[in-house]
Amino acid sequence: MAAMGYYVLINYKSNTEEASKTLELVKQAGSNGELLQFDIADKEQIKQSLERWIKANEDRSIEVLVNNAGVRDDSLMVWLKDEQWDNVINTSLNSFFYITRLVLEGMMMNRYGRIINVVSLSGLKGLPGQTNYSAAKAGVIGATKALAQEVGRSGITVNAVAPGFIKTDMTEGLDEKELKRNIPVNRFGLPEEVAHAVGFLASGEAAYITGEVLSINGGLYS
């Protein structure tokens, strides 16, 4: 997004060091941005931080929203604890609602916007041990399709990208050697490969694409 010329608002929960590194990468890409610290699983923190920023920057508008939060807390459902369910649902699904609703008002006033939701193969296919995560991401997929129909006349597109196995912190504990045997391209994906797809959906060239879910999984599932 920085390479495309966007001023980037970087949300983070607690890791100031990594957030600052991300901001430095934004600057190295020729743009600028700022950090916004709040827990996206906490609707009161969202309201206090993001709503405050929007009100303090009435002369600026958020044109692109990327909802890319997600957390895994895997367990078979028979052993799934209440807090495991709540944490995953709040982080992936409820945050989509509270953040998008705040940003959407400005987009509708400006009659322009791009909303890209990062979902998951788990939300499309369902994966054992991930009932909570699958439910959360499937919920965002359904919301993506519904919201796209609500706001299309206002010049706003709403799409999702559904990564499969991508080399990130969330897949560090997985057996890549074993899992890649089922992936036609025979490897895990890279974060950059997801980011480029998000960048395209955020661009003006994608104005006629909305309500879509783009799978980025090396051919594993479609």
From TrEMBL:
Pfam families: adh_short_C2. InterPro entries: NAD(P)-bd_dom_sf, SDR, SDR_fam. It comes from the Bacteria. Signal peptide: none annotated. NCBIfam families: PRK12826.1-2. PANTHER family: 3-OXOACYL-(ACYL-CARRIER-PROTEIN) REDUCTASE, 3-OXOACYL-[ACYL-CARRIER-PROTEIN] REDUCTASE FABG. Belongs to the short-chain dehydrogenases/reductases (SDR) family. This is 3-oxoacyl-ACP reductase FabG.
